[in-house]
Amino acid sequence: MIRPRNFQPNTETAQDNGFQTLAVDASAHDLSKRAYDEVTGMVEALRGEGIEVNLFEDPRDDRPDAVFPNNWFSTHPGGHVAVYPMYSQNRRIERRQDVLEMLKARYRVQDIIDYSGLEQDDLFLEGTGAMVLDHVERVAYAARSKRTSEVLLERFCTHFNYEPMVFDAHDADGVPIYHTNVLMCIGTDVALIGLDTILDTARREVVRDRLAHGGREVIALTQKQVADFAGNAIELQGRDGRVLAMSSRAMAALAPEQRWRIEAHLKILPLDIPTLEMAGGSVRCTIAGIHLSPRPRVVGAAA
């Protein structure tokens, strides 16, 4: 996770991110402080559940979306790391060598596959924002957008052994949804998805059936719930079992029956991040998951 000191909604990405909102009640300084405090609170809550968090600071003032690291890299079992090409030019400077060096130092990293040079060819694939990965069934779900190149998606799936599942998704106003992870999340036993965002009914059923394959419970979200970030959640391993981390706003948007169905499988952990959500992303976007094997800690070594 990245804790920002100069947070603000990104005017460059607002062109195709319909989930962003303007800050009309706070100065830039107040926004930054609120965002900083919200990430601090998230980290404390996650660690309170026994979830290990690697927290980095971002003191620069030219990376408004630095708080969303899942777009520029992902990690995978077997020691693999991917680095991604970003659509917006001012997001490309979010890639950080110190983060990659930390991964190599603390975890067993075999290779880093760097796709970022393909920005020069106008090919973009914004990590686990553009793709929602089913680690059990090995499917990469992706909604078509400016930020998701089907050519690059196919290349990723070949490298990492996933089946691509591409579809068109639109918000309530008919605008293409910019990132797949705002409309769906996939856990071990349960998946949340805004099925109504997929207008093609035949394709919608294909996606639903593929998600349900293997017995996973599929919970359909409304357009309103997607707009409230109910799909932008992530399953994490806690001390006492699996946890579904989502924002307080997202949890409040769920119907009681939906909450009950989720909690039959895992605990919901609500996190209060209204300022961060102004940037058009929520809890899932702030977390780049670690799927690497940790290196043994040397007894007596410096922390």
TrEMBL record:
One Pfam family of this chain: DDAH_eukar
Entry-linked InterPro entries: Amdntrnsf_FN0238
Domain of life: Bacteria
NCBIfam families: citrull_CtlX
The protein's name: Amidinotransferase
Species assigned in the record: Aliiroseovarius pelagivivens
